[in-house]
What we know:
The complex is a heterodimer of chains A (109) and B (116). Chain A has 109 residues and is an all-beta fold. Chain A has strands at residues 4-6, 11-14, 19-25, 33-38, 44-50, 55-57, 60-65, 70-75, 84-91, 97-99, 103-108. In chain A, strands 2, 4, 5, 9, 10 and 11 form a 6-stranded mixed beta sheet that branches. Chain A has a 5-stranded antiparallel beta sheet with strand order 1-3-8-7-6, with no helix packed on it. Chain B has 116 residues and is mostly beta strands. Chain B is built from no helices and 11 strands. In chain B, a hairpin with a 5-residue loop joins strand 5 and strand 6.
Amino acid sequence: RKEVEQDPGPFNVPEGATVAFNCTYSNSASQSFFWYRQDCRKEPKLLMSVYSSGNEDGRFTAQLNRASQYISLLIRDSKLSDSATYLCVVNGYGNKLVFGAGTILRVKS
Amino acid sequence: GAVVSQHPSRVICKSGTSVKIECRSLDFQATTMFWYRQFPKQSLMLMATSNEGSKATYEQGVEKDKFLINHASLTLSTLTVTSAHPEDSSFYICSARDRGASLEQYFGPGTRLTVT
């Protein structure tokens, strides 16, 4: 089983739609969780950290469910510029970051 | 803030040659830098963790004699791919963790290596 698993997608949604991604992780000792965004042939960029209480940043909301070991990302009012690959990232053994393979989002007009 | 640069952004080399990639934290000190490799449509795979002033820690399956890492200062780490082969062609990305900060890592723009 992979340490971090994501649905690869692609998720094809119209502009203005709400879309949600889930991610599961296997290491119950993980304490830090992140969502990164990666554009084609570019480096990953931190989108947001995920806190136990959940957190919101504009149109983006992240939730953590420790009991079920999954993390979610909700994007409201999708924009064309949201099209990218979204990487779920969890700290693993030795505090190294472990990356999921990513979920592709395509927002179409 | 938290800018990481990487050079070169793209390199093409012949089999058997060596290639050096530089990673710099421009506006912060990074005691720890990380080197990742990403093949098309796959996730980032950690190759090694580089600590300033000490030997790098390599992940299982990564040959330390082939991928030489030097972290000579708090703002610079280098990765040298020695005796490159076509299967080493990949996207190499470094990241840096701010000294004393959380686990967040800031990524360089990556180096696309093509070995012919």
